[in-house]
C-alpha cells in the first residue's frame, strides 16, 4: 500500500520590514512543534492560523515538516501594510495551550 504524503501550499506574507509564513495551528500540533515557536511570531485563533516569523520560526516549521516527510510549497504575497502586526503574539497562544493542558490534567485528576 502506498504511503500518503502530506502536502501543503503556504503563504509567505511580507511587508516593508519583515516576513511571516502562514501555517495552520493544527499543523504545528500535528508536527509537535507548537511549543518550539518563539514569541516573535503571531497567531489568529478564530482563523486557526499562525504567522511564523521568517528568521527562526519558519525554519522550525520547515525542519519538522521535512522530518515528517511533508512536501511544502510557498506562494509569496507582499502587503505594504499587513494585518499580522496587529495579531497577538504567539507567546500568548502558548500560554493558552499550557492553561488548557493544566485544566485537562485537573479534570483527569492527574494534578
Number of beta strands? 5
Q: Low-confidence stretches at least 5 residues in length (pLDDT < 50)?
A: none
Main sheet characteristics = 5 strands, mixed
Q: What is the helix content? A: 25-40%
Mean residue pLDDT: 93
- Summed up, the domain count is 1
As a percent range, the share of strand residues is 25-35%
Shape: globular
- Elements, N to C (H/E): EEHEEHEH
CA-to-CA gap between the ends?
A: 43 Å
Q: What's the helix count?
A: 3
Description:
This protein has 111 residues and is α+β, with helices and mostly antiparallel strands. The protein has one domain (7-108). Helix content is 32%, strand content 27%. It has a five-stranded mixed β-sheet with strand order 3-4-2-1-5. Strand 1 and strand 2 form a beta hairpin. The radius of gyration is 15 Å and the shape is globular. The N and C termini lie far apart (43 Å).
Amino acid at each position: 500500500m502506498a504511503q500518503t504524503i502530506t502536502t501543503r501550499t503556504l503563504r509567505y506574507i511580507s511587508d516593508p520590514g519583515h516576513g511571516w509564513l502562514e501555517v495552520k495551528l493544527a499543523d504545528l500540533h500535528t508536527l509537535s512543534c507548537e511549543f518550539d515557536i518563539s514569541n516573535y511570531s503571531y497567531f489568529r485563533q478564530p482563523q486557526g492560523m499562525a504567522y511564523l516569523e521568517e528568521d527562526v520560526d519558519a525554519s522550525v516549521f520547515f525542519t519538522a515538516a521535512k522530518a515528517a516527510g511533508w512536501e511544502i510549497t510557498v506562494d509569496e504575497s507582499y502587503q505594504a501594510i499587513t494585518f499580522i502586526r496587529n495579531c497577538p503574539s504567539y507567546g500568548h497562544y502558548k500560554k493558552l495551550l499550557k492553561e488548557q493542558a493544566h485544566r485537562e490534567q485537573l479534570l483527569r485528576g492527574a494534578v
